[in-house]
Automatic annotation (TrEMBL):
The gene is rlmH. Homodimer. Its EC number is 2.1.1.177. PANTHER family: METHYLTRANSFERASE, RIBOSOMAL RNA LARGE SUBUNIT METHYLTRANSFERASE H. One of its GO terms (molecular function) is rRNA (pseudouridine-N3-)-methyltransferase activity. The lineage of its organism: Bacteria, Bacillati, Bacillota, Bacilli, Bacillales. SUPFAM superfamilies: alpha/beta knot (SSF75217). This is Ribosomal RNA large subunit methyltransferase H.
């Protein structure tokens, strides 16, 4: 299985990079994983709605340019469906069973995802009704994908 995590912005925090590297290394036993960063748009504090839409649009174009045409796209969005770790594992397992070997998870920038990205998504996933920094979501997502593969294979993992 090929998993892409397409995300807006560069990761600067060393502790997050270390955590992501650790889970990416662990995940490599189960799937090929690639983290693709697209540049974020600089967003001043007081943006109009039109400015926000324009920024999301530009970031969205960059994201969509990185999505493989055959990929099953899962957008991370606060309004998405909440799943347990076991349900996420089951979803990933079903995708593999039905020949979807490419999964692209998309993490937007600080303003969220453009409508065009949400339209391209096959499903949207929410980790919580709370808002998290998009940089932290990379780590949480990689850990949950790793956990999903452990669950699918019936391997022990702390609960």
């Amino acid at each position: 299985m090929n998993i892409s995590i397409i995300t807006v912005g560069k990761l600067k925090e060393k502790y997050l990079k270390q955590g992501i590297e650790e889970y990416t290394k662990r995940l490599s036993a189960y799937a090929k994983i690639e983290i693709i960063e697209v540049p974020d748009e600089k967003a001043p504090e007081n943006l109009s709605d039109a400015d926000m839409q324009q920024i999301k649009q530009k970031e969205g174009e960059r994201i969509l340019a990185k999505v493989h045409p055959d990929a099953h796209v899962i957008a991370l969005a606060i309004e998405g469906r909440m799943l347990t770790s076991e349900q996420l594992a089951d979803n990933i397992d079903k995708l593999a069973t039905y020949g979807k070997s490419k999964i692209a998870f998309i993490i937007g920038g600080s303003l969220g995802l453009a409508d065009e990205v949400m339209k391209r998504a096959d499903e949207s996933l929410s980790f919580s009704k709370m808002t998290f920094p998009h940089q932290l979501m990379r780590l949480v997502l990689v850990e949950q994908v790793y956990r999903a593969f452990r669950i699918v294979r019936g391997e022990p993992y702390h609960k």
